[in-house]
Amino acid sequence: MQQPGLHDRHRDKNGEISRKHGNTLVRMLRRIYGPHFAAGEPETEKLSEVLHKLDEPSLSALVHDHEHGHLESKIAQQA
């Protein structure tokens, strides 16, 4: 069953995001998207470990930046 507010495009992009950015820590993504990104997940978890559990706002922000080619540069700026 699909979560309310999530579109098929989110689920299609998860595999690609995980392959490209799966080793990125939640800690780094919170620096980019704010403290509520992946709420309830430890900051030491990798994106690949929490991607399937992300709430709609976190997933939408991640997919939006990935689709528009901004995710890689945002991660690089935080490294």
Into which percent range does the helicity of residues fall? Answer: 55-70%
Query: What sort of overall outline do the alpha carbons produce when their principal axes are compared?
Result: globular
Q: Which spans of ≥5 residues are poorly predicted at pLDDT below 50? A: 1-11
Strand content: under 5%
Specify the structural class. Answer: mainly alpha
Question: Can you offer a commentary on this structure?
Answer:
The radius of gyration is 11 Å and the shape is globular. α1 crosses α4 (56-67). It contains five helices and no strands. Residues 1-11 have low confidence and may be disordered. It starts with 7 loop residues before the first helix and ends with a helix. It has 79 residues and is mainly alpha-helical. It has helices at 8-21, 26-33, 47-50, 56-67, 71-78.
Topology:
Elements: H1 8-21, H2 26-33, H3 47-50, H4 56-67, H5 71-78
Helix pairs in contact: 1-4
Features of the shown structure:
79 residues, 58% helix, 0% strand, disordered N terminus
Q: Could you give a short description of this structure?
A:
The chain is mostly helical. The protein contains five helices and no strands.
